[in-house]
Amino acid sequence: MLIRLAFRNLFRNSRRTLMSLMMIAGGFASVVVFQGFAAAILEDIRWGAVNSQFGHIQIASQKLWDPGSDDVFRDRQLEHPEELKEKIASLGDIKSVSARQFFYGLASTGEQSVSAQIIGFEPHLETELISKEMIIEGVPFTPPTKSGQTIYEAAVGEGLARLLKAKPGQTLTIIGQTADGGINAIDAEIKFLFRTVVQEIDDTTVYVPLSLSQKVLDSDGAERVVIKLKDHDMVAEVLTKVKAVLPDGTQARGWRELSRLYNQTERYFETQNAVVAGIILALILLSITSTVGMSVSERTGEIGTMRALGDTKPAVLRLFALEGLLLGGIGGVIGAILGYTISIILTAVKVPIVLPGATQPIPVRVTHLPSAYVLAFLLTVFAAFLATMIAARRASQMNIVDALKKNV
Amino acid sequence: MASPIAGLPIAVVTAVTKEYRLGQQLVSALRGVDLTVYQGEFLALAGSSGSGKTTLLNLLGCLDTPTSGTIEVLGVKTMGASDTEAAHLRANKLGFVFQNFNLIPVLSAVENVEYPLLKRHMTARDRRERAMQALARVGLAERMMHRPDELSGGQRQRVAIARAIVHDPALVIADEPTAALDKKTALEILDLLAELRSQMGLTVVMASHDPLALSKASRVVEVSDGMLVKGQS
Ligand SMILES: Nc1ncnc2c1ncn2[C@@H]1O[C@H](COP(=O)(O)OP(=O)(O)OP(=O)(O)O)[C@@H](O)[C@H]1O
Ligand SMILES: [Mg+2]
Fold first, then answer.
1. Reported confidence tier of residue B231, pLDDT bands at 50, 70, 90
2. Quick one: pLDDT at residue B4?
3. Closest chain B residue to A7 measured between Cα atoms?
4. What are phi and psi of A81, to 5 degrees?
């Protein structure tokens, strides 16, 4: 009956209660939508980090991760990448394991020369690094032959190609420093121009088959071994297994450690989410305090009656607390429905946004994040409880005789 | 001293004063009151407006404590009682009837009557049954589902009386229970109080300046300027 009483009291002034409920529901929905939006962006960044940059796990020489000033090129290289790849491939749960080479060099079309970062990779193993959709002009690399002959081909990022005035079919001369310090220049045919999701890559990068990069550097080594997993959630588990079989002087790192953008964005959203939650907590707190506060003032006489009939101070407090919790709870439920609906609508409308450093806009998505709903609900109920306690304390502390006089 | 009414003392007021602070001023509402309330009596406090009737009733009802003197209600000295003890005493042993009925507007008649029983360990069904019995006693059984604003003044006061007796209190305190009612209805309410008193063996203390009300009482004590008129305690 106490709950029934609290419920009826809540809707005595239905306009005020509805306003309050809207406030709470709006706050709840904001938390859910903001967090869902942030989560979706992080998912996109994660996807990009794993597929177009780092893979899930990378293995490299300890000295590549933590360079020292006396290191020479060879110190930063993996000497027997093929052996390592085989060892890793046998671990299980692995989709692909491949090697990459990397160096700064000069790319030249004869007419123009531009410094570029040259990335050698294994296109037939790392199919997502440069997928078919990223090719804006030209055709893919030729698949490798059994005998492992060098493939003299190259792919140029969109922005870099503009500087070089490069077109598929032309010859690109790649000039670099060999492992032993000499200068080497190799000609390759430009097979295609590409556009990834990251502007910086498109402006600076030439992709070549691993064998070609090894030729330029005059080395069998690789800079890193890149592992892609079948299941994204297995990273930690596989990382442990990988670490157990690593040769001395090498170290494995997960994509999260490697992606600065992901970590920065995540931290940014953590701060933003906390600020949003704080603001909303304050709004809900104010809204409920004023609702319950007004209710307490209006019902002063009634509080006197309740006390005269033998209700203790805690009993009075309890009734108002119940009203506040009901207000918070109902507001929370409406907020959850509202937040869910807004998330669906926003995702369906596909508002385009450009992420920092990205080449193309992506449609806004809002992920349904159960943890955000739980947080928002706790926030709402906590605010409701706190606000009610503040307002209801006054009710319970009232002098009975004075309160009774308010009955007219 | 021979008591006019056969019965045990239920409440004893001894040398009680009550002062209110009004800004800089001290208002003496009661100035040395001695009074004994006996079991089973229908005691009326008469006196002009501002004489101190409500103040005395509030002290008897453990809603307030005196500035000096002692009050013992049903064996409990109210001066030393904690807030919670006083609340328990009110909940278990006292019933209140107010001038303006003081029903809880969102509760139906029967729910209002049930309200004092919420503090008891009772099943909802027992509670409802007790409340219905009390409503039947005041002749309002068929209005049980009505909200207070759907009832007339007299009916509301009946509900309030049912609420005051539902838990079999030892003492019912009624402050001007008929002041908000017309003459005919007032008479009905007074008759009801008198009837309940004799049927249930209730003790009733009522404040009123209505001569009609005073005529229904078994004893009348007059309050004047914060004191009882001599020879009446
Ligand atoms: N809270 C208060 N603060 C200051 N003075 C008060 C307070 N309550 C009562 N008084 C004063 O105490 C005196 C007695 O008041 P009380 O209400 O007991 O009179 P009453 O006999 O019940 O009058 P009425 O017939 O009008 O109800 C009055 O002078 C009143 O002004
Ligand atoms: Mg009075």
1. low
2. 47
3. B106
4. -60, -35
Do residues A124 and A115 touch, judged by C-beta distance below 8 A?
Answer: no
Residue A233 included in any domain: no
Is a pLDDT exceeding 70 seen at residue A105?
yes
Domain containing A281 equals 2-48+262-406
DSSP A358: B
If one counts the domains in chain A, the total is 2
A257 in contact with chain B, both atoms CB, cutoff 8 A:
no
> Over 70: is that where the pLDDT of B5 sits?
no
The ligand 1 atom at the shortest distance from the C-alpha of residue A401 is: 1
The rounded distance, in Å, linking the Cα atoms of A74 and A327 is 68
* DSSP structure string for B3-22: -SS-S-EEEEEEEEEEEEEE
Facing residue for A407 by CB, picked from B100, B107, B116: B100
Asked whether residue A358 is domain-assigned, the answer is: yes
Domain for residue A247, yes or no?
Answer: no
**B contacts of A307 (beta carbons < 8 Å):** 63, 87
Position A254 in a domain? no
- Using the Cβ of A264 and the Cβ atoms of chain B, whether some distance falls under 8 Å is answered with no
Q: Do A9 and B106 touch (CB under 8 A)?
A: yes
CB contact under 8 A, B118 and A312: no
Give the ipTM.
Answer: 0.94
